[in-house]
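Q: Sequence in, structure out?
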Amino acid sequence: MTASIVGWSHLPFGKYDNLSVEEMIVEVASSAIADAGLEPKDIDQIFLGHYNGGFVNQDFTSSLVFEAHPDFRFKPATRVENACATGSAAIHQGINAIDAKKAKRVLVVGVEKMSERSGKEVGEILIRAAYLKEEGDIKGGFAGVFGKITELYFQRYGDQTDALAHIAAKNHKNGCSNPYAQMRKDLGYDFCRNESEKNPFVAGPLKRTDCSLVSDGAAAIVLADRDTAMASEKAVTFRSAVQVNDFLPLSRRDIIDFEGPAVAWQKAFAESGMTLDDLDLAETHDCFTVAELLQYEAMGLTKKGEGTSALKEGWVYKDGKMPINVSGGLKAKGHPIGATGVSMHVLASMQLTGTAGDMQVTDAKTAGIFNMGGAAVANFVSILEPLK
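A: Exactly. Output:
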């Protein structure tokens, strides 16, 4: 694999009344190119990750990147969408362009603005990432889908409410160290564990603290071929980049086995020549706390049904053997759909270049990333390490 990340930019996630999708795109695109030590004229192709689905009225957004600089004009620009894995899907298109020698330098932007719609409208948009023919009427929308998954897991392996609360508390504590996080507040285990007026049940066993946030945000990276990357001030390379898609209907899968994520991790390790023990940290897709729990099992950290042991043994905390979501994850950082996968790659690259500030994992040299679209449908795994 020839592609490396040589520059990046990241807006703090949150709710932006004063910034449009266009303005967020322009800001991160300009900043990422400058961070890479390049000029807009140096970019060969552009990929924009933008789910939208009705979050904003402007639906054709690929050429909005051109508003950052006139030198982008006449370059190929393509919008990419793959549900909540949209950002990683855009990155993979950039990697493919470089591997095919169609480009030497690629700009990838991920963006979403969700706050312009009401909570009800947001739910109606997100449920479209499920199989509407069978799942469209599930109470609670997409939270209801994962509420159902949680109930199935509890039925097979016992009540894991304590584990979900530990995941929420861990990620909120980690988010306090992330300057890009939407919620920088240590909520504590007791608050996350107990139902309250401020932490009501949302869907099935899932409480508000089990659910990621509605967010606005954008992030961008610059990808370069090996020769360009070797001459760059910094470069983080892909040891592997794998995409695995599964059936869309839940009815066609044993959903709590998370088979798609498991296969994606297995292929990524095979492609990279590495094992889980070789990773120093991972950023994983905790759209709901139960998703992170299932991903411990899918990545091979524990056996099926034993994900809670990763918490009991302290493995997934910042000082553990496999720190998971030291950024705060989607739970604390926020989850602007199209930006999430790009954000994960930015934050992992910061770790591997020793520039993660208070988030820094000591001597981090390898990182795994798992970004998921739908309920384990579109599964993307990246394994990153410094190029030099």
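The mean pLDDT is 97.
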